[in-house]
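Let us practice reading a record.
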Amino acid sequence: MSDIEQRQGALQQLVEELLREAKRQGASAAEAAVSSDAGLSLGVRLGGVETIEHTRDNGLGVTVYFGQRKGSASSSDLSPEAVAETVRAACNFARYTSEDPCAGLAEAGLMATEIPDLDLYHPWGLSVDRAIEMALACEEAARQSDPRIVNSDGASLSSHDGLQVYGNSHGFIGGYAASRHSLSCAVVGQQGDSMQRDYWYTLSRLGEMLEAPEQVGRQAARRTLARLGARQIPTQQAPVLFQADVAVGLLRSFIGAIQGSALYRKASFLLDRLDTRVFPEFVHIHEQPLLPRGLASAPFDSEGVATRAQDFVSDGVLRSYVLDSYSARKLGMRTTHNGGGVRNLRADSGGLDRQGLLKRMGRGLLVTELMGQGVNGVTGDYSRGAAGFWVEGGEIQFPVEEVTIAGNLKEMSMDLQ
């Protein structure tokens, strides 16, 4: 038996003990999760090492039900004494809470019956010396790429792996191991009175699949240099193209609006819009939680429900909300297998790359950075600071800063082209 299998077995026994203890203390149902994580994080700046941090974190959490009264407690101590005390605390909370007719475990028939291997666990085995060498090479490549790079916010490298096991009194218990590695760099450029900062990063389940340190550094420098000489533009109505990494924020706002907790509180601009058109016909938004090596892949959700590929929007029509079992009951519906949120969300492209989209837009603003939190989930009103590039004739003309993009997400969604 491998080391990871032994560790997972130990965590599984701990989950089983949590559930047994909950039953001993009178709970009618319970669910428990245990995790164990370890990693290395370090940062360098201006050619020197600033931080080195080794982490090893353990945690357990238990939720108990006394009929439809619920109590939860957690601890970072995995000792037998902590197990009993944590369950006792959860039971005490449950005894004094009000009954909630929607409280309870997810339906037993929805539990994952198989735990597929999604190839998520690839420990790197990186030494501290090699990690420092990589981070320094990344920052050095950025600083040496152009004399206009005058300062650095540094380069950071992290390598983490961990295990998590979840179980409940339906008899379900499952767990899996996962790893995540990243390298990033941020630098400052100056040209005359203009000073700008930008960054780049690479992220993967496999350390060997990260972009080369020098490539990350040079890309951070290129992005910074491209922003030098940024100017303001007059107030106007114009087409806007969101760069892919920025457009994620729009998807996040959309998912927040179709999340069960917002819907049953009637705090969503997409309330009662199921099976109606919310985007143009070409839009397809879906999740793929079972992608091998996917950064958000998981074989089951936070309630033990088997995950599945599914559409949220197809042909521009809202096909599904994002519901866990509690919010589904509040709405008189069934869980959409999304306890803990969505996983590997995808918005299919129309086949054009960035240059093709710029040509199609012709004239407008390419947004490469958004600032602030000006999104009203209830009304859909949208107002955020932005920076990017002004486009004429399908070509970037000059960088832009100190811009505010304002509108309403309902109208912005329907106006997509």
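A brief commentary: Residues 68 and 101 are 6 Å apart (CA to CA).
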